Amino acid sequence: MNLPAPGPDGATVLDLNRAFLPPSAFAPHFICSFPPPGNRLEAVVPAGETRILQH
First and final CA of the chain: distance in angstroms? Predict the structure, then answer.
């Protein structure tokens, strides 16, 4: 996922709708990649459906 540079206050927007899989995810000759240890967030990210409609 590519993120914009942080603003003057140090904040940036993380839009999970723009997440993507690298090309190696679809190629059988690559091993499954995993995120490097530096790719961790210290903050909790509330994500997922929050208003599910029941029909």
Answer: 34
